[in-house]
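Reviewers of the previous submission asked for a worked example of the structure-prediction workflow described in the proposal, so we include one complete record here. The input consisted solely of the amino acid sequence. No template or homolog information was supplied to the procedure at any stage.
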Amino acid sequence: MKVGILAGGVGSRLSEETTVKPKPMVEIGDRPILWHIMRYYYEYGFDGFDEFVIALGYRGEYIKRWFYDETNLASNLTVRSAAGTIEAHSQPPEDWTVELIETGLKTNTGGRIKRLIPYMGGETFMMTWGDGVGTVDIRALLEFHRSHGKLATLTAVRPPARYGHLDLNGNQVVEFSEKPQASEGWINGAFFVLEPEVGHYIDGDDTLFEREPLQRLAADGQLMAYHHEDFWACMDTLRDKVMLERLWASEKPPWRIWS
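From that input alone, the workflow returned the following structure tokens.
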């Protein structure tokens, strides 16, 4: 089963970083958030999550260059100038296959998904955005999708609270939590499982997947929600990036399930 990742948006609300790079290449620690997302899927690995199809758009060459450099420059090299060959002496720890697909500079999310579907092998596939991490149980998500037999499953998450949460007893603070997940309300956290027929609900490049396609899927009874109560975060702003950096530097980052 393949995992599609949308990595072609401009990321205008993170313009401090995205004037020179696409948002999925903004680093958390010393690695792009795109790598964090891929590594999370890769660690589940039970059903072939080592094949990724990435939709490129804005500054797609930056993503191509990063993968090329990561593969070829992360080890000792032997250069044979006369033959024009370069030999790497070690491989990255991730044994994955990545297809980098140009899906247009101004194509919207639905259009990008529709353009990726031909690369998904004609079978069920995963899909997510290139700017969100979480602790979603990928095994349970897939089992849920297979159990209901509909065309699409999204992951419903609790949005992170913008401000610290106070539990009060009169004037006394009983408990303080800095920016916890909200305790009420659900939003679309991506981490989709989709069938290829979802493409029939997408008109073309101008289509936002979050609007007409999901609305029509819901109206036809073909959209289900997998509820995820635990950690989830989307890197929309510099504030979000700083928060994720702080979590990554902590003793146990929530989404780091690898050693």
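The radius of gyration is 20 Å. We consider this example representative of the routine output the project will generate in years two and three.
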